[in-house]
Design a protein that fits this description.
about 190 residues; Hypothetical upf0131 protein ytfp; five-stranded mixed β-barrel; alpha+beta
Length: about 190
């Protein structure tokens, strides 16, 4: 850039960054890319034509595409919406702070379970959700997110190292379709919890 050359920029999510770094590691080069954080919100990009993205499911396969009678739940802008939390958001005081609840008011969480994922440890301290066979189960706390504003606050909290995925949440009252945050960030040293 000092020589007056044009620069090119593109936007990549955490998974894209990881793939670029992995590819560069296989090359015989000393090139080090620069990644500038410009958008830190967890992505939420639900397809209306398939169940993509869904926890523990290769949702691009033909059997998961829409038919004339298909509708996929939850939809992109559907509220209220159940979420399953498995880390710090499962602590009522942390969740209340992120949702800007009045002092002394805490959200009501209930026990919940999802299938098709497992928890691993990232960076030596963070519990992260990754895809796994359907036989794998993750226990956590479920919360009914009432609005897009609350969901956006949670997506900012989780950062672009995560994406929102569809999943079936098993509550004491029965199963509901909802969401959780799946890890998509750089994977240096993920270890099972």
């Amino acid at each position: 850039m000092d020589e007056g050359d044009d620069s090119l920029f593109c936007t990549v999510d955490g998974r894209g960054k990881y793939e670029i770094l992995c590819w560069l590691a296989t090359q015989n080069t000393s090139f080090k890319p620069t990644f500038a954080r410009i958008f830190q919100k967890a992505t939420k990009d639900f397809s209306a034509h398939s169940i993509y993205p869904s926890l523990g499911v290769e949702s691009t396969l033909p059997q998961y595409r829409a038919t004339n009678t298909s509708s996929f739940s939850p939809s992109q802008n559907e509220y209220p919406l159940w979420y399953l939390f498995y880390g710090t958001l499962a602590i009522p005081e942390v969740l209340a702070r992120q949702l800007n609840f009045p002092a002394g008011q805490v959200p009501v969480l209930q026990p919940g379970t999802i299938k098709g994922g497992m928890l691993e440890t990232w960076a030596g301290k963070y519990r992260v959700l990754v895809d796994a066979p359907e036989s794998e189960v993750v226990n956590g706390s479920a919360y009914l997110v009432e609005s897009k504003e609350h969901e956006d606050a949670l997506r900012v909290y989780e950062t672009d190292n995560y994406e929102v995925v569809r999943c079936e949440i098993y509550l004491p009252s029965g199963p509901v379709m909802g969401c959780s945050f799946r890890f998509v960030g750089t994977v240096d040293g993920l270890v099972p919890c």
